[in-house]
Design goal:
CATH architecture: 2-Layer Sandwich
InterPro entries: TfoX-like (IPR047525), TfoX_N (IPR007076)
CATH class: Alpha Beta
Order of helices and strands: HEEEEEEEHH
Pfam families: TfoX_N
Protein name: TfoX/Sxy family protein
Number of helices: 3
Largest sheet: 5 strands, antiparallel
Strand content: 25-35%
Helix content: 25-40%
Number of strands: 7
Length: 135
């Protein structure tokens, strides 16, 4: 289910305008990262792009395909990744446009998941049994 070396290299070449791409195996699939943020996943050499409320309108064409999902407790859990249409692989500029929209969604998701800098600074760590608490 992970991306083949050839498909990964194809994506790396096509999406080079975005920045530094890396690939990491995750959950039997391959995560596609740009500068440390996951913008897509690949399963069976099929590209799925990150979707959120900010880019669903752009990706309406992809809504006709089943989203990337996994099964947990007998239920299908949809992930926030929609299948990129095959035609994009013949239209490199549009593929990059879709990837940029997916990357923007990935940044929005990452911003929601990480606490605000002020919250991080205000957090206190509990001291271990052999340590004094530092404030």
């Amino acid at each position: 289910m992970v991306a083949s070396a050839g498909f990964s290299e194809f994506l790396r070449e096509q999406l080079a305008p975005l920045g530094r791409l890396t690939f990491r195996r995750m959950f039997g699939k391959t995560g596609v990262f740009c500068d440390g943020v996951m913008l897509a996943m690949v399963a069976d050499d099929t590209l799925y792009v990150r979707v959120d409320d900010g880019n669903k309108q752009i990706f309406q064409e992809a809504a006709s395909y089943p989203p990337l999902n996994y099964t947990k407790g007998g239920r299908a859990i949809d992930l926030a990744f929609w299948r990129a249409p095959e035609r994009l692989f013949d239209e490199p500029d549009e593929l990059v446009t879709w990837a940029r929209a997916a990357l923007a969604a990935a940044h929005r998701v990452a911003a929601r998941r990480s606490p605000a800098p002020a919250a991080k600074a205000g957090r206190r760590r509990k001291a271990g049994p052999n340590q004094r608490r530092q404030d």
